[in-house]
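Renewal narrative, Specific Aim 1. Our central claim is that a sequence can be written position by position from structural information alone. The example that follows is taken directly from our test logs and has not been curated for this report. It begins with the structure tokens describing the chain, in the order in which they were read.
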């Protein structure tokens, strides 16, 4: 199990870590209307959404008018993301200059996918003078799972898990703490990398914990916890955005960066063989 090198840095209750040197921009005013574009390409799924709230509605936790798209991510998103953004903005009757911010999944996730979303958000924002709002993809996973629950008691901790490939999982803990009707979370355990069998070594993660993510179909019986479906969707990022903006999460697009967590992109041949042996052993245990 390995630790995110920035995990010891102080983190605001619900804001993804701001890149080093990035000065937060003036906070969005809750009495105002809100118009956002959100995108995520951190997994094999590309998720894009445009949201529009009338004056005061976002601060009351109301759902926006929304236009959204879900499609193939990974390498394909580099060719399809910008046309999808243009189409959704056209359907919403909005121009880029009318947006209050451009929201993107900052990571962790696929190296190529994170670079794609960050570069597109950055380019669109720089061209129109808009700020960007980086959102932790594991936070979005927790929020995506929560949105499908009938009710969640404040203080409930949800563990978000995303497949990191190379026989590892990104994992972080988030506590549900809504504010005045707005979806909001507090970070309880910064992101770590862990092998499936080592998840219970993560501080605070117990066998009975609520877990959400995309790893259950991938690792199956090797997991010591049950992981319900959850993804870093653009829809979830739109719901999170009002509280994040109030917390000063929007930054100058020139300073936006993906959050990789680890530097290694691929396994060696020996490491791939070892991972296959562990998987085979788990199936026959």
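The sequence written for that structure reads:
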């Amino acid at each position: 199990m390995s630790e995110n090198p920035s995990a010891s840095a102080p983190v605001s209750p619900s804001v993804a870590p701001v890149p080093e040197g990035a000065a937060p921009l003036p906070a969005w005013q809750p009495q105002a209307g809100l118009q956002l574009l959100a995108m995520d390409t951190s997994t094999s799924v590309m998720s894009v959404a445009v949201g529009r709230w009338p004056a005061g509605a976002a601060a009351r936790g109301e759902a926006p008018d929304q236009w959204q798209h879900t499609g193939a991510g990974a390498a394909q998103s580099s060719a399809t993301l910008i046309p999808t953004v243009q189409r959704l903005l056209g359907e919403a009757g909005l121009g880029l200059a009318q947006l209050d911010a451009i929201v993107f999944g900052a990571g962790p996730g696929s190296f190529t996918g994170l670079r794609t979303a960050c570069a597109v958000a950055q380019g669109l924002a720089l061209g129109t003078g808009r700020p960007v709002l980086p959102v932790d993809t594991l936070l979005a996973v927790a929020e995506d799972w929560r949105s499908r629950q009938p009710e969640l008691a404040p203080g409930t901790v949800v563990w978000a898990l995303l497949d990191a490939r190379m026989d590892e999982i990104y994992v972080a803990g988030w506590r549900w703490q809504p504010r005045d009707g707005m979806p909001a979370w507090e970070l309880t355990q910064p992101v770590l990398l862990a092998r499936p069998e080592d998840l219970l070594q993560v501080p605070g993660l117990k066998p009975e914990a609520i877990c959400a993510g995309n790893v259950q179909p991938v690792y199956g019986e090797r997991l010591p916890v049950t992981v319900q479906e959850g993804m870093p969707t653009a829809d979830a990022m739109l719901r999170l955005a009002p509280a994040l903006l109030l917390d000063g999460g929007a930054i100058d697009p020139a300073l936006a960066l993906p959050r990789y967590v680890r530097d290694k992109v691929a396994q060696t041949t020996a490491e791939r063989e070892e991972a296959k042996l562990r998987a085979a052993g788990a199936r026959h245990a």
